[in-house]
């Protein structure tokens, strides 16, 4: 019995260490989102370059986390809920890596957009979207660490808000392009960025869904309607 | 020694079973790419609906594969190369799931694009891109099963070709939009689809990189330049 407790707590210590890395990675990804959106709105090319460079650190952390998680599995041979917990670490680091990639892709377009005249308040609207995505990310990670299913469900609900912001922007960009063809290139880039932020929300939702699954053992209602309407309704 | 052989072959049998599921999943994703591109070009809404429905089967298979892989880890406690092999199964099923999602998203736009007058040979060009992505997928899976690093490196090289096709299409869409604002909405949707196909290639590349890592123990040159130029050069 003592032996078993010993093994259990060794696993818990290992898990905590990997989860601490997840939190560190999450913090870097939050910074990346915020700075990418800021660099876009303020046309701050050095800040954008910083975001692009930081993505390498994020990618390295993901690889480390996966290796450490694999080491824990090999060493402790966890089963049942312990195995699910350690596997979720890999899933979540994968989600974080993708969100980091989207932030990097956003930052890549700062340079090209800075050379064009601004179109409406496009970049400010994108920054508002990014702020929402950043909060969703922070809360989904908090929900994960605290195993808080209620907070996770709240994150899932907020994704619809983000989708609606994206839909509204999509229509706005179409209008700008139709009004003046000189807006087309800038709007194509901004649409691309807005879609990336909307996808960040999807990854936060995926993390939150995992939390719900880990805590309750049940998947959140996957009949949940996707709210990107641009593909089904003809935007006017 | 005999005991060890026994354990090793039990693991190999388990691994083979999960890999067979990967191949089945890969076949479904190949079908999804081909049919989504076809439904787009021929404006075949029932075929698009079929692609969307098939995505649920793909998602279910991914969940099954991950559960089976976790079961193998818990049961056999593999280490070293065996552990890497079984973990790669999870990574690859994740890549396949995303590619399937992109095909589904493509099929979602068939309906809305069918209501608009065609723009140039946009959908035919997308279908050519999709054909290349489908071949990359097939070959990356073959490389995985046969542990063929050479074929995997060939897949990685082909991703640049796909990126160049995307870049050319991006410029073409810009031109169409500037020529006639009535083309804008259709081009926005087609650009979105082309970008999704380009991303399929990224996931094939990621699978191929894993094969190289599994076979040679070394990561393929990650200084490899990304060839989506639309974010760095101002398209003319």
Automatic annotation (TrEMBL), chains A, B:
Pfam families: PhoU (PF01895). Transmembrane segments: none annotated. Keywords: Cytoplasm, Phosphate transport, Transport. SUPFAM superfamilies: PhoU-like. One of its GO terms (cellular component) is cytoplasm. Residues 22-110, 126-211 form the PhoU domain. It is found in: Cytoplasm. GO terms for biological process: intracellular phosphate ion homeostasis; negative regulation of phosphate metabolic process; phosphate ion transport. InterPro entries: PhoU, PhoU-like_sf, PhoU_dom. The keyword Hydrolase does not apply. Belongs to the PhoU family. PANTHER family: PHOSPHATE-SPECIFIC TRANSPORT SYSTEM ACCESSORY PROTEIN PHOU. Plays a role in the regulation of phosphate uptake. Homodimer. This is Phosphate-specific transport system accessory protein PhoU.
């Amino acid at each position: 019995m003592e032996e078993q407790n010993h093994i259990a707590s060794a696993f818990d210590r290992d898990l905590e260490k990997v989860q601490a890395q997840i939190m560190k990675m999450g913090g870097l990804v939050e910074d990346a989102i915020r700075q990418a959106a800021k660099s876009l709105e303020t046309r701050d090319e050095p800040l954008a370059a910083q975001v692009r460079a930081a993505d390498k650190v994020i990618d390295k952390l993901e690889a480390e986390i996966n290796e450490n998680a694999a080491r824990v599995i090999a060493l402790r041979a966890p089963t049942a809920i312990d195995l699910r917990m350690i596997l979720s670490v890999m899933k979540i680091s994968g989600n974080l890596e993708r969100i980091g990639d989207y932030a990097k892709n956003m930052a890549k377009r700062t340079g090209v957009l800075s050379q064009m005249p601004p179109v409406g308040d496009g970049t400010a609207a994108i920054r508002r979207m990014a702020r929402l995505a950043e909060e969703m990310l922070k809360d989904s990670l908090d929900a994960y660490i605290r195993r808080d299913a209620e907070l996770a469900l709240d994150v899932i609900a907020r994704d619809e808000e983000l989708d609606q912001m994206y839909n509204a922007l999509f229509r706005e960009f179409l209008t700008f392009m139709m009004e003046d063809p000189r807006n087309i290139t800038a709007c194509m880039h901004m649409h691309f960025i807005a879609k990336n932020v909307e996808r960040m929300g999807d990854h936060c939702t995926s993390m939150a869904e995992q939390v719900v699954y880990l805590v309750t053992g049940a998947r959140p209602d996957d009949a949940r309607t996707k709210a990107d309407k641009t593909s089904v309704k003809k935007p006017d």
